[in-house]
């Protein structure tokens, strides 16, 4: 057998234990929540090597409040210290504490007993409040001196190994024999009581082979005795004293057990069960298989109180009470205990009946929206109408508002403004990339690590049941897959008829979401699942024009960034020209997010300049006005020239209008070239199926009208197209492109290529074409035109049936700076693209003109 002495260092970290005495050979499970011990175990937990079972600590009992400290004694003397704990010092007199109180409680060396037990950590588990640790007593120790008090106690110790019983010590030999006889007697009783076999084997081993000191401790561990009696045994490092006390205690226990066995045979079944249960608990406790029940009780009392205060719905309360009952029956080391406990914590933290009171003051809301956002008049108007209806009707049963627009146009910040106008809490739920229904609805509790979904989590975070939830990027939520359908879960969330009984899989009780005000945001409408779209009212926020961006910057972004950088509004001035330079030279976006970032860089540079001037006491030299030249010094050379200016007009190159998946509009170039070949058409630039088909249609139309357009010399000539290959490329090959709206631009690019005529780079076009040359309307007109305006386009050719979109939605200043050409057919486009020049002959009347008369 290993000498335990070898394992025990001279200095040991100390874990003080309350109401318990650990003896060598016993094991104990402790729920550790007090700060000092938690910090000690944290250190052990962190260092991987120390997590092994070899880590040794000292376990020392804390004196109960009524403990009278014994007189200092000569520890070399073999006699045991006078025992002075009164009966009042038992566990029942210990005051109950909450977890927090226990955590903050500080233990002084003077509170601790002089003797303790060195123990080996065999299991260490993290819990919500601290640790659960299982320790095994190794050997008696006496504390000589505390060498550390914070963050945890550490002490120099003397260890007391048990000597072997000397053959010639008659008295000791007799005591040992008597102890073994008592042990055998107990073994028989325990066998009758059906004690665990492993325990019985162990006891038998100790009785037959000793060592006698360990057998004494092992027996005392099993029997019922008071706290004081156990302390007495702990203090008795001298074998003779320990055995004498133990024999007395064991004899008492045997008597009790004998009487019990008699009573047992006469008891009713119910009584017996109760009695056995009590006994089982006591035995478990003695064997160290029950942890500090006072802490566990504290925990459950605390939870019960919190559940009572949370004002649960009747259904939730029923479930909570059932689970509480289960929890009480469980042992805190059981894995299921933590699962149930976490569930109950969730139930207690959902705001079932806590609401903020609404302030629906339309004037105040109007003011708030005005203060926070420039422009967006129609959006603000619609939001105010919505709030007015909310005020009159008093419920939220209506369509959900969905703010639709490119990134950085203020969708999120509009949501925040609405929340602060209403005095409600605001929470943003990002739906981008949500592929799993469980993310919305939670995982069932049977899963390991199950959690409630985003909605329930949001409610817990805000702490009130009537917040504003901004469902961000609802267009990016996943559809039906083998992980369920997140959009179907959202449907339930957003449906006012169903959402008062929303079922989160984890909570598994109906949640009332009818008081939550949902606002959604999306970049594009196409990918929003139709049933969701059906429940929402779209409010379009197209991109901003330069003029709007400058106004937003002067009123909101610049003041915000100046103050963010510790300057006062008077310290930095930027003219509209400078702001325009930043917006056009350094950003290319529909919103203002990058613009704000660039303004922040300028403010940072100004803050450095200001601080330097202040340090040198030269504030008079500091120039608060920022010039256009300074901008280049701060932000570097301009990142973007006018997109149109980058290009020179060439045959085969045409400017189209695009609408990106993020909802912002812009221009795109189409380049066509021809080479000797066999009549093949090659397309590049990451193109989708539809745009490829548009290119085929365009080529077929051009081939069909080649003679009329002067490309071929006779109507029957076919060699022209069979002797050359055509290659069409859409630059910015990294970005995928698709959709039918490039049809018109593709046709014009091919006509320009074959007729060697140029289209001005400031002319852009959009529209779908049919094989017969008709121009069909397309979507995203407003965004495309605002984007084109930003790019410096002067003329836009677009389908005649899109005229209403231009007249209705496009800002006036944009309309006034762009010349619009509305086309019914491709000949109208040709006329517009080639500056009114009629490049075709009328020898054959164009088929489309005939069609257009239909
Ligand atoms: N009209 C406006 N008036 C004042 N500030 C604005 C306006 N539009 C946008 N902003 C500001 O622009 C920044 C970006 O806005 P926000 O984050 O709300 O954009 P978003 O549309 O939600 O973008 P995303 O779709 O990427 O989430 C914010 O600081 C916001 O205050």
UniProtKB/TrEMBL annotation:
This is Lon protease homolog 2, peroxisomal. GO terms for biological process: protein import into peroxisome matrix; protein processing; protein quality control for misfolded or incompletely synthesized proteins. The keyword Metal-binding does not apply. HAMAP family: lon_bact, lonp2_euk. It is found in: Cytoplasm; Peroxisome matrix. The lineage of its organism: Eukaryota, Fungi, Fungi incertae sedis, Mucoromycota, Glomeromycotina. GO terms for cellular component: peroxisomal matrix. The keyword Zinc does not apply. Residues 12-254 form the Lon N-terminal domain. It comes from the Eukaryota. ATP binds at residues 405-412. One of its GO terms (molecular function) is ATP binding. Keywords: ATP-binding, Cytoplasm, Hydrolase, Nucleotide-binding, Peroxisome, Protease, Serine protease, Stress response. Residues 648-836 form the Lon proteolytic domain. PANTHER family: ATP DEPENDENT LON PROTEASE FAMILY MEMBER (PTHR10046). The active site is at residues 741, 784.
């Amino acid at each position: 057998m290993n000498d335990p002495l070898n394992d025990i260092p001279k200095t040991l970290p100390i874990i003080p234990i309350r109401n318990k005495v650990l003896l060598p050979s016993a094991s104990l499970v402790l729920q550790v929540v007090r700060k000092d011990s938690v910090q000690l175990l944290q250190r052990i937990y962190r260092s991987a090597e120390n997590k092994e079972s070899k880590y040794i600590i000292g376990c020392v009992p804390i004196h109960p409040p009524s403990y009278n400290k014994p007189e200092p004694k000569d520890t070399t003397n073999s006699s045991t210290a006078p025992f002075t704990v009164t009966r009042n010092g038992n566990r029942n007199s210990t005051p109950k504490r909450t977890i927090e109180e226990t955590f903050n409680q500080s233990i002084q060396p003077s509170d601790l007993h002089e003797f303790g037990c060195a123990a080996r950590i065999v299991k260490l588990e993290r819990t919500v409040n601290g640790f659960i640790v299982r320790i095994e007593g190794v050997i008696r120790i006496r504390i000589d001196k505390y060498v550390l008090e914070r963050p945890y106690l550490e002490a120099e110790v003397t260890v007391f190994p048990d000597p072997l019983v000397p053959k010639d010590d008659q008295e000791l030999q007799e005591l040992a024999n008597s102890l073994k006889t008592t042990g055998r007697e107990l073994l028989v009783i325990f066998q009758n009581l059906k004690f665990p076999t492993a325990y019985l084997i162990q006891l038998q081993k100790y009785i037959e082979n000793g060592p006698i000191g360990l057998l004494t401790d092992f027996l005392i561990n099993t029997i019922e005795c008071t706290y004081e009696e156990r302390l007495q045994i702990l203090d008795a490092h001298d074998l003779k004293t320990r055995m004498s006390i133990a024999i007395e205690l064991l004899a008492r226990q045997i008597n009790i057990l004998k009487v019990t066995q008699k009573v047992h045979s006469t008891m009713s079944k119910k009584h017996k069960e109760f009695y056995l249960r009590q006994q089982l608990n006591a035995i478990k406790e003695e064997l160290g298989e029950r942890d500090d029940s006072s802490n566990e009780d504290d925990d459950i009392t605390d939870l019960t109180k919190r559940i009572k205060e949370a004002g649960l719905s009747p259904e939730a309360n029923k479930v909570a009470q059932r689970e509480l009952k289960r929890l009480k029956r469980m042992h805190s080391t059981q894995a299921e205990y933590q699962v149930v406990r976490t569930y109950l914590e969730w139930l207690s933290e959902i705001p079932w009946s806590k609401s903020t009171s609404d302030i629906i003051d339309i004037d105040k809301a109007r003011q708030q929206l005005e203060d926070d956002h420039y422009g967006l008049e129609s959006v603000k108007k619609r939001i105010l109408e919505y709030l007015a209806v909310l005020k009159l009707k008093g419920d939220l049963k209506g369509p959900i508002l969905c703010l639709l627009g490119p990134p950085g146009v203020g969708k999120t910040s509009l949501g925040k403004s609405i929340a602060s106008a209403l005095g409600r809490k605001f929470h943003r739920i990002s739906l981008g990339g949500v592929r799993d229904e469980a993310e919305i609805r939670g995982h069932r509790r049977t899963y390991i690590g199950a959690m409630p979904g985003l909605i329930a989590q949001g409610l817990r975070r805000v702490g009130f049941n009537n917040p504003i939830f901004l469902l961000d990027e609802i267009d990016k939520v996943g559809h039906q897959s083998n992980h369920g359908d997140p959009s179907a879960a959202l449907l339930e969330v957003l449906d006012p008829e169903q959402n008062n009984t929303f079922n989160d899989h984890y909570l598994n009780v109906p949640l009332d979401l009818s008081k939550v005000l949902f606002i959604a945001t999306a970049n594009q409408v196409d990918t929003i699942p139709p049933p969701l779209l059906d429940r929402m009212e779209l409010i379009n926020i197209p991109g901003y024009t330069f003029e709007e961006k400058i106004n937003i910057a002067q009123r909101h972004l610049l003041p915000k960034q100046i103050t963010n950088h510790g300057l006062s509004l008077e310290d930095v001035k930027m003219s509209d020209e400078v702001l325009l330079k930043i917006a056009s030279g350094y950003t290319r976006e529909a919103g203002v997010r990058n613009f704000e970032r660039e303004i922040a860089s300028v403010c940072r540079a100004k803050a450095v300049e200001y601080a330097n001037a202040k340090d040198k006491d030269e504030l008079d030299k500091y120039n608060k006005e920022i010039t256009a030249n300074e901008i280049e010094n701060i932000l570097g050379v301009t990142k973007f020239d006018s997109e149109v200016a980058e290009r020179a007009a060439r045959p085969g190159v045409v400017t189209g209008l695009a609408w990106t998946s993020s909802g912002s509009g812009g221009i795109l170039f189409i380049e066509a070239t021809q080479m000797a070949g066999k009549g093949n058409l090659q397309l590049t630039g990451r193109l989708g199926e539809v745009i490829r088909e548009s290119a085929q249609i365009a080529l077929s139309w051009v081939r069909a009208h080649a003679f009329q357009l002067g490309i071929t010399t006779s109507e029957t000539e076919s060699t022209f197209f069979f002797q050359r290959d055509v290659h069409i490329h859409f630059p910015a090959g990294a970005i995928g492109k698709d959709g039918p709206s490039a049809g018109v631009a593709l046709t014009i690019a091919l006509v320009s290529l074959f007729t060697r005529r140029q289209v001005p780079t400031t002319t852009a076009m959009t529209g779908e074409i049919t094989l017969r040359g008709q121009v069909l309307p397309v979507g995203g007109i407003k965004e495309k035109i605002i984007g084109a305006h930003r790019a410096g386009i002067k003329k836009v050719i677009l389908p005649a049936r899109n005229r209403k979109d231009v007249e209705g939605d496009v800002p006036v200043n944009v309309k006034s700076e762009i010349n619009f050409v509305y086309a019914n057919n491709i000949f109208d486009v040709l006329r517009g693209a080639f500056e009114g020049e009629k490049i075709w002959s009328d020898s054959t009347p164009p088929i489309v003109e005939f069609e257009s008369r239909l």
